[in-house]
Automatic annotation (TrEMBL):
It comes from Thalassiosira pseudonana. Transmembrane segments: none annotated. Residues 11-158 form the Peptidase C14 caspase domain. This is Metacaspase-like protein. Coiled coil: none annotated. GO terms for cellular component: cytoplasm. One of its GO terms (biological process) is proteolysis.
């Protein structure tokens, strides 16, 4: 796998793995996905642990709640400058809900489903566009790997 990166910039990552432990629809491989991606980024591409935010519902990491996922995205946008490399990884459930603002051709917003979705709701593609895509500074190289259902347009990119 080739990652386009600037060798002089800072490398940052947000890695999210949600197995929904104890919930209906529990998954089993999302924590392994995060550990494998983290190892790959560190060993092969020189990412440093202190520049990675890892969210997993494994009892050892910060919980991947709606608020913590959005805070991680806000952090990586705030810290990243032109010339930096950013990796976003999400492994968990994805979904779709009725579009509320009329910007979707198919009438649905694609979503990421945080561990606390039953209380806080799903993270809509509109939220990702507003908090992650649009505010990212020009010149930051971003790779986003979304391992979930309905992920094809979850960043609401115009192309």
């Amino acid at each position: 796998m080739t990652i386009v990166e600037n060798p002089t910039g800072v490398k940052r990552a947000v890695l999210i793995g949600i197995n929904y432990v104890g919930q209906q629809g529990q998954l089993s491989g999302c924590h392994n996905d995060v550990r494998n991606i983290q190892d790959f980024l560190q060993r092969v591409h020189g990412f440093q642990q202190h520049n990675m935010t890892v969210l997993m519902d494994d009892g050892r990491h910060k919980e991947p709640t709606y608020a913590k996922i959005m805070a991680a995205f806000d952090w990586i946008v705030k810290e990243s400058m032109a010339g930096d490399t950013v990796w976003i990884h999400y492994s968990g459930h994805g979904g779709r809900v009725a579009d509320q603002d009329g910007d979707e051709d198919d009438g649905y917003d694609e979503t990421l489903i945080p561990v606390d979705f039953q209380r806080k709701g799903q993270i809509r593609d509109d939220d990702l566009l507003k908090h992650l895509v649009k505010p990212m500074r020009k010149g930051v190289v971003v790779t986003a790997l979304m391992d979930c259902c309905h992920s094809g347009t979850v960043l609401d990119l115009p192309y």
